[in-house]
Structure formats: C-alpha cells, structure tokens
Design goal:
With about 300 residues, the chain is α/β, with parallel strands linked by helices. The chain is about 30% helix and about 25% strand. Strand 13 (about 215-220), helix 6 and strand 14 form a beta-alpha-beta unit. The chain is elongated and about 65 Å long.
Length: about 300
C-alpha cells in the first residue's frame, strides 16, 4: 500500500512531522504565501496523484488559515489525489450552534458544510459539542472526535495525585467527569451564570470537605479565561489550595493565561492541540490511530 502523504499548513510543521512519523506516512512539502494584494498563493511541491493526502492544520485563528486550507485541498483533488483528509487538533467554529438572537448566523453548520465540501474525512480532538451532540450533525463527511481525557488523566495521576477534579460549569462536566473516572479521583461541578464575555458568576456546593485536595479545574476551551479565573477565585475563597488549571485547547485571548495566575492559579497546563507555552499534555498518541485508519483506506492506485 502506498504510504499516505502528510502536508502541513504554515505553523503546523512540527506537529505534522510528528504525525507523519506516528502513522508511517511521508511528510510532503507545500508552499503558502500572500500575493502583494493580500490574496493567498498555494502550491503543492510533492506529487499527490493517486495518493491518500492528509492536511494538518490546527484551526486557532481560523479566518487566517481556512482559505489556504481549502485551496490546498482543492488543488490536491485537481491534481489527482485519491483521498483527502483533514487533521485539525483544534476545530474552530463549534460554539455558535444555535441562533440566540434574531438574525444570527449559525456558523458551526456553515463552517461544517464548507469543510465537508473539500475533504473526504476529518479527525479532531474534543470539539465543543453542546447543542450538537455529534460531529455527524454538522459534517457531511466521516468525522472522528478523539477525547483528550485519557492523556489528561495520565498527567493528573502523575503530577497531581491528590487532585479534586473541578468542572467550572455544566458544559464542562463531560470533560471533568471523564478525567476523574479515568484517573480514579473525586470530582465536583460548579454552576456558572454569565452576564457578559468577561463577567461570570460562579456558585459551588460545599467545598470545605475537599481542603486536603488540590483542585484541578478542567475545561475544553480556555479563551478569555473569565470562567476559569472566577472558579479559581471561588475555590481560593473557600479555603482550598491554589488550583491547577487544565484546558484541552489553549485558545487564550491576550492576557488570559496571566489572568489565571493573577487570580491565584498555581499552574496553567494545556494539551498540544494549539501551540502555546502552557502545552504539557500530548494528544498525538490518541489521535494517530484514528488518522491512520482513515489515511490508509485503500486507494485506486493500491488496487492497480
């Protein structure tokens, strides 16, 4: 069987190289730049005809990357690639999953339709599924979502064995409880009332019983960090130890990580789905098997 070909969008080269090594693929070359007028130029420097092509691109700042990503997929198709997949460790545009005010665009559905029009399959890590209960509700192509919970649980067992897993709100309960179950540790889920993008009120059950534990706050996306900062302050006010904050995706608006430390966090840790100085938990061992399965489905060239 011909080895799959992995191509990296700019900024994703180290992750793509590690992925190619993990699945036994060839690491190809492509070029992306801007014309003087700001439009995108894309060129595939490795032949793709008859091959299974994997484009690697985490989708932090998606508006910066998605046109080049679609141009690269369309070029691979036009040049004869047999299958084209996307590995996006962080999958953007999943939060706007309903029309909360009249006239709003439901961008998760539109973005899903766009990527489904140029790719044959998709693999990601912990997409933000709330009102959509599965990627199949948004994407028309096979889409695999891998959970980072086992990797986070391994890290917590190793680094913080006295942990109490804390979910900041009801939406985060799925991650906190999954990590707690995998690590064999206790957990609590708090309640959030949001009054604005950075104005969050946190209420909690009785916490004094957990004063001998180190709170480990777990959420999927850390963006403004407003919710996590409020949780850290609430836990400290209850007399608990300085919490450790763990996020799957380090989206981090400017100053967000610093805000967590200022609120009293002992440490801020994230998975490596988005490159960031807080990355300490690798998800490639979890994602690679799913990617290998899709990338190695036989192509017409193999049959010949």
């Amino acid at each position: 069987m011909t080895a799959p070909l992995v191509l990296a969008l700019p900024g994703n080269e180290p992750w793509a190289a590690a992925l190619a090594g993990a699945i036994g693929a060839e690491l190809g070359a492509m070029r992306v730049r801007r014309f003087p007028d700001g439009e995108r130029y894309v060129r595939l420097d490795t032949p793709v005809a008859g091959r299974s092509v994997v484009l690697a691109c985490t989708l932090r700042d998606p508006d910066e990357h998605v046109l080049a990503l679609c141009f690269a997929a369309a070029a691979a198709r036009d040049l004869g690639a047999a299958r084209i997949g996307l590995v996006a460790p962080y999958l953007a545009y999943m939060r706007q999953d309903a029309r909360f005010r009249p006239g709003e665009a439901i961008t998760s559905v539109t973005f899903g339709a766009l990527l489904s029009s140029v790719f044959d399959w998709l693999a990601t890590v912990d997409p933000h599924l709330h009102r959509h209960h599965a990627l199949a509700e948004v994407y028309r192509v096979p889409a695999t979502a891998v959970s980072a919970a086992p990797a986070i649980a391994d890290w917590v067992r190793r680094e913080q064995p006295d942990a109490l897993l804390v979910g900041p709100d009801e939406e985060s309960a799925q991650w906190a409880t999954a990590v707690a179950a995998a690590a064999g540790l206790p957990w609590v889920v708090l309640t959030k009332s949001r009054h604005g993008d950075r104005d969050v009120e946190i209420t909690a059950p009785e916490l004094a019983v957990w004063r001998d534990c180190t709170p480990v706050v777990v959420d999927d996306i850390v963006s403004t960090a407003g919710t996590m900062a409020a949780v850290v302050a609430r836990l400290r006010a209850a007399g608990l130890r300085a919490p450790v904050c763990v996020g799957v995706h380090a989206v981090f608006a400017p100053g967000a990580a610093e805000a967590l430390v200022a609120a009293g966090a002992a440490r801020v840790v994230t998975c490596d789905t988005i490159p960031h100085p807080t990355n300490a938990i690798g998800v490639l061992p979890l994602l690679a098997p799913a990617v290998s399965t899709w990338a190695r489905i036989a192509t017409p060239q193999d049959a010949g």
